[in-house]
Amino acid sequence: MLVFAFFVLLQLSAPARAQDNGSGHPAPSSSSEAPSQAGKGTPSGGASAELQQAELAKKLSNPIASLISVPFQNNFDFGLGPNDNGFRYTLNFQPVIPVALNSNWNLISRTIVPIMHQSDVVPGTSQTGLGDIVQSFFFSPNKTTPFIWGFGPVLLLPTATNDLLGGKKFGLGPTLVVLKQKQGWTYGSLLNHIWSVAGDDARLDVNATFLQPFVSYTTKTAWTVSLNTESTYDWTAQKWAVPINFSVSKLMRFGKQPVSIAAGPKCWATSPSGGPSGCGLRFSVTPLFPKK
């Protein structure tokens, strides 16, 4: 699947590479255009709107863009539990809200609120409810060269409504994101580390590193192909959980409201005993609220 994903990314990026003049910037497009392009003038209203949608789609690939977005991310995982027949559905409500602190710095709030249903993770039982919320804050400078970055705290909030849906621990730690956007490409990594500092003494301590390298390509027609992992290493159990996510998304408008719709497989390279296995599915719907 990884080979197929990279092949798709490279194929979609071919037009952009053909227009690169080798300086890292697009080639000039006025009098140097081929004769068939001469005399076309400025882009039409439709072409301009399409470019705006492509720019919005590219911003959505940036985890700390100055853009309010409200993803509803649906995850379907299989093969859980001691009998490998458990199922889990997770709806992650993930609002991203940027706040301008001054002319040089932004504060970006990223929240993950998991709403879960699982069955046969513990054989013969099912649970439905809220999981533990993860809240991140990134302080990020406005400049985008040589790369985009943000740094701040991450909090783990013990909000689970069922003992089997959360760890009953309050945790905190640092989080960092670094990325580069060039032409239609976005690539970088987000990471954090959380230690538990309070909570139920009968539950295992949290000592976990999260690592999310990502790469995506956005076309001029606002299609985006993305590949990432959302790997977690549990230092207490000394176990990795590594899902590999491949998705295709399209930014469109419903009336005046821009919305991104994405779908793709979510395949587990490895997970702890009793964790998910094989391939599941992820699809998301993300309303965007750009500045007027």
Descriptive report:
With 292 residues, the chain is mainly beta. It has a single domain, classed as Beta Barrel (Porin), CATH 2.40.160. It has 2 helices and 16 strands. The protein has a 16-stranded antiparallel beta sheet that branches. The longest helix has 17 residues. 25% of the residues are buried. The N terminus is likely disordered.
Question: What topology does this entry show?
Answer:
Elements: H1 2-18, H2 45-60, E1 68-69, E2 72-80, E3 86-93, E4 96-100, E5 105-119, E6 126-130, E7 133-141, E8 148-157, E9 169-182, E10 185-199, E11 207-218, E12 223-229, E13 231-234, E14 239-254, E15 257-270, E16 279-289
Antiparallel strand pairs: 1-16, 2-3, 2-16, 3-5, 4-5, 5-6, 5-7, 7-8, 8-9, 9-10, 10-11, 11-12, 11-13, 12-14, 13-14, 14-15, 15-16
Oligomer: single chain
State the share of residues found in helices, binned by percent: 10-25%
The H/E string reads HHEEEEEEEEEEEEEEEE
Low-confidence parts lasting 5 or more residues at pLDDT below 50?
Answer: 2-42
- The CATH H-level superfamily is monomeric porin ompg
Please describe the structure with a list of short key phrases separated by commas or semicolons.
single chain; 292 residues; mainly beta; Porin; 2 helices; 16 strands; 11% helix; disordered N terminus
